[in-house]
Amino acid sequence: MIFSNTISPDTNSPTIISDTDLLSLRTAFQKTAAHFDQSGQFPHENIAALRQAGLIQLVAPSPFGHGATLSQARKVIETIAYAEPATALVLTMTYLNHRQLSRPDNQWPKTIREQVLQSARHGGLINALRVEPELGSPARGGLPDTTARKQDNGWLLSGQKVFCTGSPALEWMAVWAKTDEEKPRTGTFLVHRPSVDKGLSIVENWNHMGLRASGSHLVIFDNVKLAPSHAVDLRLPEEWAASGTSHTDLGQNRDQQAWMIVLLSTLYDAVARAARDWLLDFLRNRTPSSLGAPLSTVPRIQEQVGRIESLLHTNKVILDHLTQQTDQNTPGSPSESGLAKYIVTNNAIQAVEQALSLCGNHGLSRNNPLERHYRDVLCSRIHTPQNDSVLVMAGRTALATV
C-alpha cells in the first residue's frame, strides 16, 4: 500500500489510494489507451479518475496534499505510464511543479504559492509553459518573445507557447516571459485559467508520433490580464546568473533535477516494460507450424529476451539508486542525474527495438500495442536534458577532475 487507506470524514483531506486501487486504474487506462492514441483526444476521463483517486495532489505538501516522497511519486507514475504514458506525463508535470512550490527556497510569494497548492485539494493541474515557436527549448539559452507589459492594475501578457502538455485541462499555467521594461526582466507569470475572461486560446495542433493524447498544444496569450501579484519571480539576467539557478527550468538544484530525471525516466522505462510484457506473452503463445513449439522455446530468442532483461535491470538499479539518494537528501550531481536519464531512456528505446526485431510484422501492426509503445518511448529523447547536453556535461566534469 502506498499510503494508509484511512480518511478523516470531517476534513478536506484527499482520498488515499491502495496498491489494489492503483492497479485497477492501470487496468482501466490500458483498455482505452489505443483509443486515445488513435484519436489523439485528451484523456479527460483518465484525469478525472486520477482526481477521484486523490493522486493529483500526491506531491503537494501538507495540508494541501500528501507530501509524497520521490519513491511514492515514482510508483504512481510507473503504474500509470505502463498503461497510458500521455496521462502519466501530464501528471508528472504537476508533480514536478508541486515539488518546486514546496521547496523552502522557492521565490514565489507565500500567498500565491499557497493559492496554487490549495487548488491541489480538488485536483488542479499545473504546468510550466516555456517553449516557443521561434526560440525552441529555453534550456539552450535565449530570451522569450512572450512579453508582459506593466499596467497600473497589473500586467498584460502576450505571446505564444508550444508543446504545452496538458493544456486542455490545466488550471494553472506558469508562463516564462520577459517584461517590456527598459532593462527587461524575465521570470514566471502565473495564469489562473478559470479566471481569464478573454485573450487566452488553445490551438489544438498537437499531432505527434508518440504521446498523442498529452494535449501538448499551442497556447496563445493576447493581452491576458494578470494581477500584479501573479508576476511571481522576476529578475534581471545578471540576478539569475548570480543566484546559480535558471529561469528557463523548474529551478534545477540537485533535488529538483533528480525528481525530474527519475519521474521522466521512470515513465519511459514503464513503456518499455509494457512492451516487454506484451512480447513475452506473444512468444509464449506463438507456435509456428514449421517449429511445432512456442517461439519462447528457441534458445536464440531466449538470448535476445535476456538482452532486454539486462537493459531493464540496469534501469531499475539506476533509478532505485537515484531515488534512494534523493529521498535521503543526498541527490546526485547534475552530471550524475543527467547520465541516469541518458542511460535509462536509451536502454528503454533499445529494449523496445529489440522486442520489435523478435516479432516482425506482428510488432509493427497497429492491431497490437508494440508499435504504439515504440512511438511513445522515442519521445524520451526530446526531454531536457537532451543526450548531447548530458554527454557534454559528463565529459566536462570528467576532464575537470584532477
Give a verbal description of the structure.
This protein folds into 3 domains: 19-122, Acyl-CoA dehydrogenase/oxidase, N-terminal domain (Butyryl-Coa Dehydrogenase, subunit A, domain 1), CATH 1.10.540; 125-243, Beta Barrel (Butyryl-CoA Dehydrogenase, subunit A, domain 2); 254-400, Butyryl-CoA Dehydrogenase, subunit A, domain 3, CATH 1.20.140. The N and C termini lie far apart (47 Å). By secondary structure, it is of the alpha+beta class. Helices cover 48% and strands 14% of the residues. Residues 4-15 and 246-251 have low confidence and may be disordered. Strands 1, 2, 3, 4, 5, 6, 7 and 8 form an 8-stranded mixed beta sheet that branches. It is built from 12 helices and 8 strands.
Rounded to the nearest angstrom, the radius of gyration is 22 Å
* Rounded mean pLDDT score: 91
Beta-strand residue fraction: 5-15%
CATH topology of the largest domain: Butyryl-CoA Dehydrogenase, subunit A, domain 3
Going by helix content, strand content and strand pairing, the class is: alpha+beta
Number of helices, counting only DSSP H or I runs of 4 residues or more: 12
- CATH class categorisation of the largest domain: Mainly Alpha
Termini separation comes to 47 Å
> How many DSSP E strands?
8
